[in-house]
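step=predict obj=site-specific DNA-methyltransferase (adenine-specific) n=853
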Amino acid sequence: MITSEDIKRRLWDGANDLRGSMDASRYKDYMLGLMFYKFLSDKTLEAYKTASGESGTEAEIVGAYEQAYDSYGDGLIDMIQGILGYYVLPQHLYQRWLKDIREGSFELEKVTESLQSFERTVATTGDVDDFKGLFSSSTIDLTDTALGSNLNARSRNVRQLIELFADLNMVALQKGDVLGDAYEYLIGQFAMESGKKAGEFYTPQQVSEVMAQIVAKSTDISSIYDPTVGSGSLLLTVSKHLTADERKNLHYYGQEKNTATYNLTRMNLLLHGVRPEKMTVKNGDTLGQDWPEDPERPSEGVQFDAVVMNPPYSVKNWNQEDLKVTDPRFEIAGVLPPASKGDFAFLLHGLFHLGQTGTMAIVLPHGVLFRGGTEGEIRKRLLGRNLIDAVIGLPDKLFTNTGIPVTVMILKKNRSLSDPVLMIDASKAFIKEGRQNVLQEKDIAKIVDTYVTRNEEIGYSHNATLKEIQENEYNLNIPRYIEAIEQDIAHDVEAHLYGGIPTRQLEKLTVLHDFTKDVLYAACEEVRPGYVELTKSVDVLTEDVLAHEQVTEKIATLTTAVETYTAAYWERLKQVADVDEIGPLKEEMLTEIKDVLAQFKHVDVYAGYQIIAELWEERLAEDTEKIVLSDFYEVGKTREPNMVVKGSGSTKRTEQDGWVGAIVSNELILQELYTTEVEEMDAKKEEVGVINEEINELVEAAKVEESEEADALGDALNAREDDFTIGNIRAELREVEEESEAHRLLTKVRKLVEQRTKFNRAIRDEEKALNDAVEERIEQLTDAEIDQLMYKKWFGNVTQSMTTLIEQPLKDELDILKQLKERYRDTLETIDAESKQLEKAFEAMLQELVVTE
C-alpha cells in the first residue's frame, strides 16, 4: 500500500544513492527529466489502452501497441496525438528501455535516440509548444562526464536511474496529485542541496504559502502570471488553494530566462495535471521586451487576476535592452529603476500586468522599503497612487541562496484612497532547522489571518495611514511603524535599594490578575506603600494557581470543547473516501480549532493551530491516504512487510524484517493490548539494571590499585576494562582458595554475570515472542480494537496538549514573578552587611599573618 510519503522517501533516497558527487542542481535535470519521460510513456500507453479497449498486463499492452503501430502506423499516432497533444512511438517507450535492461541489451544511445525522437515529433505538430525542447541537450546531456567518466559508467548510472521509476504507474499516481506532489518534493529537496543555485528555480514552500494564501483569499482568479516562474511552484501553490472548479478554469502564465529551469516549469505543470491549453510558458528575459502582450491591443500587456513572483534580488545591469521610461511598464513610476538594482524593475513589470481587481504578491529584499534615489521616487509614486496594500517582514535565512531577511509586498489597483498600508512584522516568528530558519504553519496562518482581517497587534501589525507614511518621508522600513515589544521588565531603583517587588510591576502580570488575582495577592505582604514581598515560594504559589477553581473550570470547559471537536472529526476521518476530500478536511479542521480556541481568553490560538497542523503532518495525511485506497477497518487489519536497509557500499541491500501495521503501529498494539506482558518485561529490565549497577561498582573497585577488589577481580576484566568476562572469572576461580576473600568476590561477580545473562536471554526470547504475537495480531484486530488504537494514535494527546495552552501563560507569568523576587532579593542593606562581614574576615586574616625576615 504505497503512499505519497513512501514515494517521496524512496525517490529522494534513490537520488542520493545514485548521484554520487554530482552537483544536485545539475543532477535534478536528469532525474526529473527521465521521471517525466516515464510519465509521457505511461500516458501514451493509457491513451492507446482506452481508445483500443485493450486489457492485460503492462507488457501485454506494450506488445499490443507495437502490433497496432505496425498495422495502422500514422493513423494510430494521429489518434493518440488528438487525445494527448503528443505521443511516444512504441520503439521509444520508457518500457522498451526497461525491457532492454532486463535482457542485458541496454545501450545509452537508445535513450538519446528516444528523447531526440520525441523532440522531433513535437516539433512537427506546429501549434503545441508545451513539449518542445524539454529534452534538449542543454537540459539532458547523456555525454556529460559528470554522469560517469566513460561510456560504461554513464550507461550504468543512467540504467540505475531508469530502474528507479520502473514500478511507478505515473498515470495512477497523477490522480489526487500524488505524482505532482512527489515531483514538487524532489524539486524542493534538490533546492536545499543546491545552496546558492537554488535561487534559480525554487521559492521555499513556506514563503510560497504566505503569498499563495493571501492571493487566493483576496481575488477571484481565472488567470495567474509569474514573470520569474522558476520551477512553477508559486503558480501551483496558488492553485492548490482554489476550489476544484476554479482550478479547471485557471490559465497559468510564466516566463523563465534559464532554459533548463523553463523546461522544469513545463514538466512540473504537466505532472500536476495542468492541460497544455491551460498553460503558456515562455523562455525569455522578463526585463527585456515585454511579454505577454495583448494581440488585440499592441503595446498593452495582458492583464491577470493574480501576479506572483520571487525575482532574483538586486540584479545588476538589468537594462540590457536599453529600455526607456517611456516603456509602458515603467511609465507609472515616472523614472527608471537604477541600473545597479533590478528589484523595482521586476515589481513594475508585474504591476503592469495586474488586472484592476487583481492581487500581486512579490518577494523582495528589505532595501526596497527604504533605499533613496530613484527607488525612493518610485516608492513615493506607488504610495501616492495607493497601490501598495501590505508590507510583510519575514525572517532572515529562509532561503538557501541568501541569508538576508526578505519582505513580501502586496499590491492592488482597486484600493480606496483612505485605505492604509498594512505593516506586518513576522521577522521573529520562526524555528531553526539546522542553519535555516523556518516558518511553521501557525506562523503562516497568523500572517494570512492578519492580512485578511487587517487586525492590529502591538509589536506585530499596524495599519499605516498615508499621513504617517508621508511623515516618514515615504520610508516603509517596518520598525518605523511597529515597535518591538520590550521583553524585559524595567528595573526599579527603590526596590533594589530597599527590597520588595513593586506592585506596579505585579499589575503587568495580566493573566494572573484575570484568573487568580486573589491567590496572587494572598501570597503578598506589603513591606511599604507600593512594594510587597512574597510569603510563599513561587513553586507553592504555582500549585495554588493551577489548582484555583477558575483555572480548573477553564480547563474542564476547554477539555469538553476539544473532545467534542475530536469526536466529530474522528467519524469523518474514518469515512474519508476520496483523495480530493483530504485537503479540504484538513483546512476545515485547522479553521475550526481556531474558532474553538478563540473563545478562551489568553489562550494562544495559533499554538493550538500548530498542534493540529503537526497531527496532520505526522499521522493524518498518510493514514487518510491509505484509508481512501481501502477502508478504515480493512486497512486497520492490514500488515505490510517491514523493509530495512542492511549493509553498506557494494553489500547494501533492502530486506524484509517482519511485518508492520499499515496504519495501526506495532508499538501501539504492544502498549494497549499487551500491557501485562510489557509490564513483566519492564520489571525484568529493571532487575537487569540493578544487576548492572552492582557489576559496574565492582568494575570500578577492581580498577583501584592495591585494593582487595583489584587483586581479586583485576584479571577477570575484559580487554577494555569496562566489564567482566565470564571465561576470565571461571579461570580465576580455579586459581584461588575456596575460603579466600578473592574467591568470595569472584563468586559474587560470577553469580551476577550469570544472572544478568539469564535475564537478558529471557527478555530477548520474550520480546521476540511478543513481537511475533503482535505481527500476527494485526490481521486479527476487531473493529472495536481498531477504534481504540486509532483514536489513541490520532487524538490520544490532543486534549492534554490543548489544555496546557491555558496553563502555559500562567506559568510564564509565574516565572516572571520568580525573576522579580530574585532580582530584588539583595538590597543595599544586605549588600552593605555582606561587605562589612567580608572586611572583618579580611582584617582577621591580616592579624594571623606572620612576617619573617
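step=describe
The first helix runs from residue 4 to 19.
step=end
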